Amino acid sequence: MALSISVEVGPVLLVNETGDSAEVAGTLRNAVESASVPGTVVRFDPSVFNGETNEDGEATDIIASSSALVLNSGESVFIDGSDIPGGVTIDSEGVNRMLRQDDPNSTFAIYNLTLRNGNGSVGANGGAILTNAYLSVLRSTVNNCSAANGGGLRINPGAAACVADSIFTGNSATSQGGAISNENGALTVASSTIHGNSAPLGAGVFTRGGPARFTNSTIANNTAAHNLGAASSGSITRSSSTTRP
Known about the structure:
The protein has one helix spanning 28-34; strands at residues 12-15, 40-44, 62-64, 69-71, 76-80, 88-91, 99-101, 107-111, 113-116, 129-131, 134-138, 141-143, 146-149, 153-155, 160-164, 167-169, 172-176, 180-183, 186-190, 193-195, 198-199, 205-208, 212-215, 218-220, 223-224, 230-232, 236-239, 242-243. The chain is mainly beta.
């Protein structure tokens, strides 16, 4: 069964600056903070972002992120990197996570991005993304991020996340969910790979209380101290998916 994802389309904001200041028009941070109309789409200017990749296949277009991009007040934002062939990398340089959804009515979607070197800070959750709302991670990579729970992604109670055509690798948690931690939320993983992550419990994915569905996905080669790559105490459904240490 094909995965259908609906994204509300509104005004388009163009990122044509590689800086991180909210005060400078054209930066990613300015675009996200200016997104007041539901369905706002944020795109990247191909004349600024060249779309090249390095020998590891990582995008060479890099935006350094000094703090999380935050969605509040029921905002709906789609960060779309499809105009840049190699994608765009958001690098937190170990300082903080990249994305945070505080308002439970907000909707956040990312496409063709790499989020790397995120840090949920000491004792915090969600090394790259912390969601309390509705999130889609599409054709993106999350790597080398860390947190207490959910080294790459943390889904808080009542929230929902869809991960499709994406890769989570090299992430770590000091407690649960090296790549993804789902705490009484809802998780869907489709056509994705979760490998090379680590945590004491659920090195790849830890899900508790809420439903989790895995379709055409691989969770493998993750390192856990006490169990396999995925751990669950809620409803979990697998279809054409592989789970192993």
